[in-house]
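assembly run, all chains below
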Amino acid sequence: MKYLFMESKRPKVAVFDFTDCEGCELQFANKEETLVDFLKAIDIVNFREVMSEKSDEYDIAFIEGSISRADEIERLLTIRQKAKFLIALGSCACFGGVNRMKNKFPMSDVNKEVYGETPKETLPVRSIKELVHVDFEIPGCPVSKAEVERIVQHIIWEVPYQFPVYPVCFECKQRFTICRFELGELCLGPVSAGGCDAPCPAGGTPCWGCRGICAAPNFQEFFNLAKERGFSKEEVIERMDFFGGFRSVTGSK
Amino acid sequence: MRLFTPYDVTKESDMLMPLEFTRANRLMHVDKTYKAEITNIIRLTEMEKLFHIRIINEEERARFSFLPGQFVMLELPGYGEVPISISGSPSNRGYIELCIRKAGIVTSILHKARRGAKVGIRGPFGNSFPMEKMKGNNILLIAGGLGMAPLRAPLFYVTENRSEYQDVHILYGTRTPDQLLFTYQYDEWKRIDDINLQIIVEKPDITWSGKVGMITKLLDELPIKPLETYAIVCGPPVMFKFVCNRLRQFGIPMHRMFVSLERRMHCGMGKCCRCNIGSTFICVDGPVFDYWSVLNLKEAI
Amino acid sequence: MLFRIIKKEDFKTFVNLMLQTTEVIAPKFIKNNAKGKPIHQFLPISNYDEMVLDYEKCEFSAKTYFLPYKNTLSTFHMKDHDWTQEIQYRIQPRAIFGLHPCDINALVRLDKVFARDFYPNPYYISRRKNTFIVGIDHLPCDDGFCHAINANHITHGFDLFLTDLGDRYFVKINSDRAFMAISEVPIQEITDEDTKDYLAVRKQISQSYKVSVKTDDLPNLLDIEFESKVWKKWGDKCLNCGTCAMVCPTCYCYGVTERVSMDHSTGKKIAYLYSCNLLDFAMVAGGHNFRPNQETRLKYRYYHQHRGFVESYGEPMCVGCNRCGRSCLAGIDPVNVIRDLHEEEKL
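ok done. output:
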């Protein structure tokens, strides 16, 4: 990329997936109108889902998914050694994601529930940063490609990227979205990190907090207002545990 | 059939005039920017660089004039705009000097930019130090840290009009010696008739042989005639608060001390309110305020 | 200002005539809320029947049609290390029907900032001049305090203003273009009967205000109560979400950001409405935050609305619509905040 007499490097990028749905990495191949330019800015050298070549020479590793098996830990440690810059991509990688809900139960129970009489090896789910040093986290279920693009631009120029500080409510208001509380539903919008453009409440689903906690949350007031509207603390906590981004508040594993 | 006719703002005569940023109450291209070229880059410290920027269009360059204390909005197309106080001399109509610290996104990319790069300039904005009113008096120019950047404009003004002012003292303090800006110019400043340059650092390194301590220490050594002195103080709030309070103890009236305030700004025109404190807009009512006004601005310090 | 009478069926013809060539924004029924109350929003309509003129209040103001939440200020076209800047102003005509007096007064206040002060703003002026405003009288809402802040009457800032007299509207015609437009359908001179009916409606309105709160002393009171415990009390509740500023018909604080395309061929400079309640409103590059506490940020909003703006423009920015109070999930209602300040003063 050339800009203002500067020429940016074209970093070698690898994308790896662990325990996940592959939805976030699919975003890399999404947004066709800018896909060619995106691929010009970076050099993808290892990406199982879209190519067969594999190289172990890369600058940036995007990690999708959480860690739930011993062999995944080993793979992750190797990647960390090779990558100069490691990015956790999506809510599973950042927080453990939906997978994390199983940590509430004994591993033998969840194994039986899913695999019946043929149990598989499984560990309690952990996010990437619980195992290795993470240089940057991009939360979201799935991540927003537009945001990934902006972050890549910032990485290329080696300048800091700042996530928005506002909660989801702010973006709902800009879309004329009727407050889900107004419709009698529980919504995590007031304490969840915005920047997603609030598509869920606009589409008819309250916020479940996939991007984690916003920069200046007011949990005391949030529990109050939920209670006033008939939602118990347990109900709110259960909702917060869905993506695992609120563990500092809920105290869940 | 249309029930009412559209109004095209771009056909207004004001919009067709050559670009000029004034506060005048007429329609204008508020977000149009002068295209300018980075003609020179001087590395001052690890964190600060001095950029020489020349407006490309000759007519626009001739139109651009500023007073010490004013600032411009520097545009990096595609990445953003930042308010930067002008560090150069108002008599220099060839290029604009901007001393820029690597702090946010725009300034970080600017630090990578090379000579010849084209950026944008809007402005100048804001008020200025009352250099006219200060004539015939002793002048104290006091800077802490990056405060040297805005202070350099009135300093140029004073040295270029040296005979109009009485004694001139420049007091400059930073935390460490390697944070000192414009070190290569100290010799020149010292040699100017009756300019007393004093430098102090809080944390000396082994190479430092100068004074050590807080900037207020330098004040104690000065012969101050309170009613014949004006002071310009630039630096972080905690610094100018200590300095101004010390100056007050010497008997200098608060309306004779001027400071330049820093705030977040997104427009420079008193609209976006990011720099607003109550009814005061730092971008149009400031950035220069006398110390009495600063004390009256709630939460300014 | 001219006064005329228009029959409701002729008004319908007028709206449909307008719809043929102009985008029309009007209160539109969306759905009922959990308590069974109807929710209306100012949205584009495609025929007269979608318009609900006897709505109570739209939670979202019509501000976005003048100060969009996101507005492209300019586009940079970049090529070979050089660039050009392109600026476009919105000039497509638009009509907004059904604005209440508070909303029209809100526009008058925005005019003071963007059209009548230093550095007039062509983005706003262009939208404002190309918007045909039709207001309407209404019985006071439950929580508004427009009358307490002198924003319940209108004198200017609109094209047409309607008062419902049952089978007909009493119309105030406030611009040349409005007179030309409405003359396309039959209108009548007012009779003594019409005047009598109009005054009766006005009397009913002025006798029906529900909320009482004292606001004229706020500039002084806010100064004295700068360190008041009231700010802590309400500040502790604040969710830092910016909802109040987004629904407010006058809050105009904004930020500017830029987006560069992936290939660095175009950059867009975008103004986005912001809120002084958000954490980084006064944060500067390098990380210093001039207002790190939520109570300080909440106080600042009242300060700007009820003191700073008065000093600059002679009247408060707030028009008493109480959208912020109604939308705030934490229940920060300006009426209660102002009452608390008065209580504090008595102590």
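Chain A touches chain B at residues 3-6, 154, 157-162 (CB under 8 Å).

The first helix of chain A runs from residue 23 to 26.

not gonna interpret more than that til we talk
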